[in-house]
Write a structure and sequence with these properties.
Layout lengths: L1 H17 L3 H6 L3 E3 L5 E3 L6 H25 L3 H15 L5 E3 L5 E3 L1
Helix pairs in contact: 3-4
Length: 107
Amino acid sequence: MRQILATIFLTLVMHTAWAIDIGTAKQQGLVGEANSGYLAAVKTPASTEVQALVSSVNAKRKAEFERTANKTQTTVGQVSHRFYELAVQKTKAGNYYQDAGGRWKKK
């Protein structure tokens, strides 16, 4: 039983160690700020790891956009658009963002 628990624990730790974080993914040009206010894969098809990162980040963003829209009596679209504008301003040199036409640009 201990060996099974140890194996499961080790697998979870190793999976976390291998999981890519948003900063690394941006630096590697795998993801960028989409003009929707969400994170998106720059190159498709994206790896399973990148898809999981994008899904996780976007679920959190959506929840925050909804909370902010309710709090400020605006729409999710308005909140996500403003977030996009701020995210582009904060995008580091060498990282990607989408322009209004949906084309990826390197800052």
